[in-house]
Amino acid sequence: MRILITGANRGLGLALAAEACARGHQVLAGVRGPGSSAEGLQELTRTFPEQVTILPLDVSDENSVRYACEQASARVGGIDAVINSAAILLGRDQKLEQLDFEQVEQSFQTNLFGPMIVMKHFLPLLRGGENQAVINISSEAGSLAGAYGGDYSYALSKAALNMFSAQLRRELAPQGILVHALHPGWIRTDMGGEKAPGDAAVSAEGILNLIERKTEAKNQALFIDHNGNPMSL
Ligand code: NDP
Questions:
Q1: In what order do the strands lie in the sheet with 52-56?
Q2: Pfam families annotated for this entry (predicted)?
Q3: Ligand 1 pocket residue status of 76, Cβ below 6 Å
């Protein structure tokens, strides 16, 4: 399969790129910019030189996404899966009165508009793929049922991402394209922190199993975890 992964330079995105390579897939590895700490990704490129293409791709910048799409189109005639993993968590633990609305805007720009911009531009390439899947990496923080009165900008942007995923599923279902919003678990990454119980590599395995149709979401739920278990929207 040919798989586009955003935020592929570290964290879950990098774990997904590594797992996809190990399974023999072609990876279009979207990275925000040359400043991104991409040591792990460089190593992956050395190990799997035929399988990894690094694409400069800042999901919050439509021109960057447009250019990345042109670069991708020059390399592949289609893509089979898009994993929107790039995201930011700003203003952790801020209460409502402390909110910085520039951070709220940045969060929506990256976590919601980012996947929307990526899908807008990459949809024609995705239509040229086979057994296509779109996985929008969301979070249980975006669950209305689990609202906890914190991380406002992050939680609200992920709730909106879930709605975008529902809309996209409706639009793409007639073409047989699978769409999920997916909570990867609380995992040890820069965002999740060292105390997180989960391993990004394990979440990546589950996500790849879903994309490869080795497992499927229970009851075809829209919002699921990496094992395909339904989550409350
Ligand atoms: P990290 O903070 O470890 O990594 C975030 C990644 O997103 C980095 O590669 C970063 O690139 C990239 N990124 C941020 N902004 C942009 C942008 N504008 N354009 C392109 N790339 C960008 O996060 P995780 O790996 O932990 O998170 C991956 C996904 O999983 C996210 O969607 C997150 O919300 C979700 N998630 C994570 C959980 C956890 O416990 N870790 C729990 C629930 C959900 P750069 O290096 O350039 O900053």
A1: 52-56, 26-31, 2-5, 81-84, 133-137, 178-183, 223-225
A2: adh_short
A3: no
Q: Which residue has the tokens 């699978």?
A: 178
User: Torsion-angle region of residue 130: left (phi > 0), alpha (psi -120 to 50) or beta?
Assistant: beta
> Apex CA 186: angle with CA 192 and CA 51, to 5°?
80
What 8-state DSSP symbol labels residue 90? -
Categorise residue 137: left if φ over 0, alpha if ψ from -120 to 50, beta otherwise.
beta
- CA–centroid distance, residue 11 to ligand 1 (Å): 6
Q: Is 139 in the pocket of ligand 1 (CB under 6 A)?
A: yes
Distance 191 CA to ligand 1 centre (A): 7
Complex ipTM above 0.95?
A: yes
Q: Are 84 and 126 in contact (CB under 8 A)?
A: no
Tokens of 136: 């929008």
- The answer to whether 71 and 123 are in contact (CB under 8 A) is no
Query: Would you say the pTM of this structure is higher than 0.95?
Result: yes
Task: Quickly tell me which residue has 């879930």 as its tokens.
Answer: 162
**Beta pairing class for 81-84 and 52-56:** unpaired
pLDDT in tens, 44-96: 999 999 999 999 999 999 999 999 999 999 999 999 999 999 999 998 888 99
